[in-house]
C-alpha cells in the first residue's frame, strides 16, 4: 500500500522556466490552490490512516442527503471530486479538516515525485495509431490493405488466435502513472506546483502527485 505523502490538483497546461545558466525547463503546471481537506481516517475509528482531499465546489442539489450531511457535519464546503490517500500518522497530524493547505510543506523543489492522470480518450482506433504499426507497402498492387495489421494467427498449430495480440480497439481514456518526475518549482502562495516533463491528461484534468516510490532506485542509477 502506497503511503507516500501526496495531494491532488488540476493540470493547467505547459510552460517554460529558465535556469540561471539559461537552460530551458519544460514544465507542467498543476493548480492545487482550490484543494481542501474534507476528512480524515484514523486507526482508532477506521483501522487505517488516510486523508480525504476535495477539489471543485459542488452544488448542494447535486449531492445526496448522506453526502451533504457528511460535509455539513465536518463544517466544510461540499466538493465534487474526492480522493482518499493513505499516509503515515505523522503526516496526517500536520493537517486539520477545513484548514488551508500549504503545498510547501509537502513538496520541495528538486525532489522526485510520481504523477498520475487519465489520458485523453481517442475512441476506437486502428493498429497504426494505437500500436504504431508500420502498415503495408504502398506499391506493387496493394489494394485496401495499407493500414491493416497483418496476420493474427497460425494455420494448424495451435489453430487459433493467441491472446494479447495487438489489434484495433479503444485507445486512451486510461489511468497512467509517470514515475520519478522532478519538481522544478513550488509556488506556495499561489498553490502552483511545476513539474519537469509532461503529465498524462488534458487541461483541467484531475491529477494525483505523490512522493516517488522508487526514488532510491533512481538515485542508484537503476
Question: Can you offer a commentary on this structure?
Answer:
The chain has 222 residues and is mainly beta. The protein has three domains: 9-33 and 101-121 and 172-222, Elongation Factor Tu (Ef-tu), domain 3; 36-98, Double Stranded RNA Binding Domain (2-Layer Sandwich); 123-169, no CATH class. It contains four helices and eleven strands. It has helices spanning 65-74, 89-92, 127-131, 215-219; strands at residues 6-18, 24-31, 36-41, 50-57, 79-86, 112-118, 124-125, 169-170, 175-187, 192-196, 206-211. It has a six-stranded antiparallel barrel. A three-stranded antiparallel sheet has the order 3-4-5, with no helix packed on it. It has a two-stranded antiparallel ribbon with strand order 7-8. The longest helix has 10 residues, at 65-74. The protein is globular. The two termini are 22 Å apart. The model has no long low-confidence stretch (mean pLDDT 91).
Protein traits:
six-stranded antiparallel beta barrel; 222 residues; Double Stranded RNA Binding Domain; three-stranded antiparallel beta sheet; mainly beta; 35% strand; single chain; Elongation Factor Tu (Ef-tu), domain 3
Amino acid at each position: 500500500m502506497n503511503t507516500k505523502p501526496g495531494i491532488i490538483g488540476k493540470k493547467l497546461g505547459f510552460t517554460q522556466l529558465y535556469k540561471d545558466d539559461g537552460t530551458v525547463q519544460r514544465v507542467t503546471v498543476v493548480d492545487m490552490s482550490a484543494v481542501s481537506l474534507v476528512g480524515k481516517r484514523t486507526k482508532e475509528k477506521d483501522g487505517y490512516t488516510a486523508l480525504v482531499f476535495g477539489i471543485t465546489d459542488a452544488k448542494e442539489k447535486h449531492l445526496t442527503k448522506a453526502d451533504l450531511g457528511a460535509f455539513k457535519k465536518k463544517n466544510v464546503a461540499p466538493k465534487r471530486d474526492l480522493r482518499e490517500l493513505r499516509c503515515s500518522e505523522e503526516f496526517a497530524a500536520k493537517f486539520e479538516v477545513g484548514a488551508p493547505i500549504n503545498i510547501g510543506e509537502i513538496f520541495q523543489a528538486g525532489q522526485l515525485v510520481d504523477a498520475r492522470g487519465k489520458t485523453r480518450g481517442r475512441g476506437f482506433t486502428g493498429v497504426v495509431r494505437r500500436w504504431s504499426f508500420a502498415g503495408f507497402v504502398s506499391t506493387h498492387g496493394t489494394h485496401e490493405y495499407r493500414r491493416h495489421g497483418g496476420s493474427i494467427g497460425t494455420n494448424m498449430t495451435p489453430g487459433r488466435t493467441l491472446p494479447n495480440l495487438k489489434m484495433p480497439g479503444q485507445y486512451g481514456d486510461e489511468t497512467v502513472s509517470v514515475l520519478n518526475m522532478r519538481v522544478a518549482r513550488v509556488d506556495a502562495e499561489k498553490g502552483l506546483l511545476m513539474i519537469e516533463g509532461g503529465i498524462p491528461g488534458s487541461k483541467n484534468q484531475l491529477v494525483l502527485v505523490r512522493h516517488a516510490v522508487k526514488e532510491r532506485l533512481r538515485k542508484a542509477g537503476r
